Amino acid sequence: MTRAVLSAGSNVGDRLAHLRSVVAGFGDDVVAVSAVYATAPWGGVEQDDFYNITLIVEGERTAHEWLAAGARLEQAAERTREVRWGPRTLDVDVITVDVVGGIVVQDDPTLTLPHPRAAQRAFVLVPWLDVEPDALLHTDVGARRVDELVAQLDSAETAGVRRLGDLDGDW
Ligand SMILES: Nc1ncnc2c1ncn2[C@@H]1O[C@H](COP(=O)(O)OP(=O)(O)OP(=O)(O)O)[C@@H](O)[C@H]1O
Ligand SMILES: Nc1nc2c(c(=O)[nH]1)N=C(CO)CN2
């Protein structure tokens, strides 16, 4: 049994429907889902705002299998890869994976864990705190509390992340 923290984002097409497809796709493996946040684009590409969620899943999958399951949902949303950090119907990133006795640390051609850019991304960290207020992220300089990482981000970065409401809510 493993537990994964996943980040899903969309800024093309029906953003909410794309995020809902992630929760539906992981089905009974979903343990918790954050609220939906409208987030300013991170990474310097001018584009529409994203909707983002962070979710926690548990199941009998390896880290690579969580990645592959996310990639299948991206394909189902007709995700294309044109510009790095550019617009997309759906992006599913694996942030960190817990196994009995610790976390998965790896860096191979298709999967780096924990996600190397998560600590800089308010669009990942702020929703994560919804579902795990005491969350820890293992960074290059050791384990860090996610709330402290958020507090250290530039205020312009956190100001660009706005809570909209629950994925199933009507707002
Ligand atoms: N932790 C991870 N989560 C998701 N993809 C990863 C991870 N580590 C490595 N990858 C690889 O990154 C590749 C490119 O992913 P993608 O196109 O979604 O990148 P991106 O979302 O634009 O940028 P970023 O990697 O900064 O989130 C994927 O095909 C995947 O193999
Ligand atoms: N706000 C926000 N910005 C992004 C996102 C995302 O999901 N949300 N995904 C990206 C591709 O990794 C690049 N930039």
TrEMBL record:
One biological process term from GO is: folic acid biosynthetic process
Annotated pathway, please? Cofactor biosynthesis; tetrahydrofolate biosynthesis; 2-amino-4-hydroxy-6-hydroxymethyl-7,8-dihydropteridine diphosphate from 7,8-dihydroneopterin triphosphate: step 4/4
Q: What is this protein called?
A: 2-amino-4-hydroxy-6-hydroxymethyldihydropteridine diphosphokinase
Q: Please tell me whether the keyword Zinc-finger is annotated for this protein.
A: no
Cite the entry's keywords alphabetically. Answer: ATP-binding, Folate biosynthesis, Kinase, Nucleotide-binding, Transferase
Q: Which GO terms describe its molecular function?
A: 2-amino-4-hydroxy-6-hydroxymethyldihydropteridine diphosphokinase activity; ATP binding; kinase activity
PROSITE patterns, per database record: HPPK (PS00794)
Q: Keyword Transferase: yes or no?
A: yes
